[in-house]
């Protein structure tokens, strides 16, 4: 099987790494990829991942058997539709189904129709409506850009003026709309479910760290680290979420005539009133994918092909490593603002000396001399596994400390509370 992966981040690097390890996969092509993926796959230039014609042409030229669309923007732009129209098997939802991520308001509408437990929310198109909704819910205020915002469209704050300023920035965009939600207490969980449009197969739940600083200080980011499994979560959590959230959502999308094929990312809070969905995404989450795939023993290619071709119902039960996995994201100076780029990165090759540790590239490039340099906000994901979370953390941070990038920063508390048994539910 030949597989084309669309994307260039650490999430795609994790997917490519798992596909390359699948004996049923003969070749992996990635567009545009990055210097890390270039070592294990064929990287093809792609100036715009939302250019459906260019992606279809690549799939044709390489005569691929499966296309995996990584990021949200090409999915919302309809790249998966164009590929299917040209006869390719695709792991990734149609543009209509990807609206579960492309519009927070649409996602709320689907959740309501499917009776999925979620927080109360109001859709606002003016600042007066935002203020009215904020007053109704009270602080902390939760303000979300209705559209795609690369994980940085949400502000959760006690500061009324900061909340209104974020809402104003979102409304200033063309067609700008804002979703104001009630604040949900309790630890957050990320669950991926693979679907063929009818059936769902859950992956191992993870927890990510969205704020830029330790102890959840500072603004939201695309994600600064993650870990799995969640030993503190209820034993029946996944079974409960499949029954109450994932399957009803997939059923509702099929009922609407827009079946969801791909991976549904469910972000939720385990509140004192039970699980409540915070958001849906229409693709693998970053950085949770990096740790979830680190523990998946079932070959990834076969699983994604089964989803793309409607054969999940009789797919074998997934097999998982007993180990824990932790990922630490190394970010460039000034991220999540405008990041500094072009700085040399060293020490990546030294990470191999740390047991089980490896580096996944995200915002990296090669300069004119072939030197690895920073080229984005989240530059690298450093992954490690261990017998338990404490060992996985120790290895991940030992590896992270070997990587040198001027001005870079990373959180020091990824999985710390979980490893100490300090997280409780309800």
Task: Summarize this structure briefly.
By secondary structure, the protein is α+β, with helices and mostly antiparallel strands. 29% of the residues lie in helices and 26% in strands. The longest helix is centred in the middle third of the chain and has 19 residues, at 237-255.
The CATH architecture of the domain at 324-419 comes to Alpha-Beta Complex
Indicate the proportion of strand residues: 25-35%
Distance between the termini: 46 Å
> Which outline best applies?
globular
For the biggest sheet, the summary is:
5 strands, parallel
Global mean pLDDT: 95
Helix content: 25-40%
Strand tally:
24
At the first level of CATH, the class of the domain at 324-419 is Alpha Beta
Q: How are the strands of the largest sheet arranged?
A: 3-2-1-4-5
Structural class: alpha+beta
**CATH structural fold name of the domain at 324-419:** Glycinamide Ribonucleotide Synthetase, Chain A, domain 4
Radius of gyration: 20 Å
Residue windows where pLDDT falls under 50 for at least 5 positions: none
Number of helices: 13
The CATH superfamily of the domain at 324-419 turns out to be Phosphoribosylglycinamide synthetase, C-terminal domain
């Amino acid at each position: 099987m030949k597989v084309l992966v669309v994307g260039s981040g650490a999430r795609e690097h994790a997917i490519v790494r798992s596909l390359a390890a699948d004996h049923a996969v003969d070749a992996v092509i990635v567009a545009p990829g990055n210097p890390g993926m270039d070592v294990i796959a064929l990287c093809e230039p792609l100036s715009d991942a939302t250019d459906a014609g260019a992606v279809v042409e690549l799939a044709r030229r390489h005569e691929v058997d499966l296309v995996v669309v990584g990021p949200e923007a090409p999915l919302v732009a309809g790249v998966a539709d164009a590929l299917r129209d040209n006869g390719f098997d695709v792991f990734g939802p149609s543009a209509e189904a990807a609206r579960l991520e492309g519009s927070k308001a649409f996602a709320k509408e689907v959740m309501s129709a499917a009776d999925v437990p979620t927080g109360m929310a109001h859709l606002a198109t003016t600042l007066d409506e935002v203020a009215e909704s904020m007053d109704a819910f009270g602080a902390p205020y939760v303000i979300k850009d209705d559209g795609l915002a690369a994980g940085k469209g949400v502000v959760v704050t006690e500061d009324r003026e900061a909340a209104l300023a974020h809402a104003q920035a979102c409304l200033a965009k063309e067609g700008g709309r804002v979703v104001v939600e009630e604040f949900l207490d309790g630890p957050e969980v990320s669950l991926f479910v693979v679907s063929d449009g009818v059936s769902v197969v859950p992956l191992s739940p993870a927890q990510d760290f969205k704020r830029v600083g330790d102890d959840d200080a500072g603004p939201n980011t695309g994600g600064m680290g993650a870990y799995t499994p969640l030993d503190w979560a209820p034993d029946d959590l996944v079974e409960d979420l499949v029954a109450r959230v994932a399957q009803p959502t997939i059923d509702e999308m099929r009922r609407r005539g827009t079946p969801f094929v791909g991976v549904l990312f469910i972000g939720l809070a385990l509140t004192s009133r039970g699980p409540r969905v915070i958001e849906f995404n229409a693709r693998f989450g970053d950085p949770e994918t990096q740790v979830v795939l680190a523990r998946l023993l079932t070959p990834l290619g076969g699983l994604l092909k089964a989803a793309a071709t409607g054969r999940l119902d009789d797919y074998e039960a997934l097999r998982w490593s007993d180990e824990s996995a932790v990922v630490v994201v190394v970010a460039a100076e000034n991220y999540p603002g405008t990041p500094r780029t072009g700085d040399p990165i060293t020490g990546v090759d030294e990470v191999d000396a740390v047991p089980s540790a490896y580096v996944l590239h995200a915002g990296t490039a090669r300069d004119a001399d072939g030197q690895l340099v920073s080229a984005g906000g989240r530059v690298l994901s450093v992954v490690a596994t261990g017998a338990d979370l404490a060992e996985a953390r120790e290895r991940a941070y030992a590896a992270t400390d070997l990587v040198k990038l001027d001005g870079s920063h990373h959180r020091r508390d990824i999985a710390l509370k979980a490893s100490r048994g300090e997280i409780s539910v309800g």
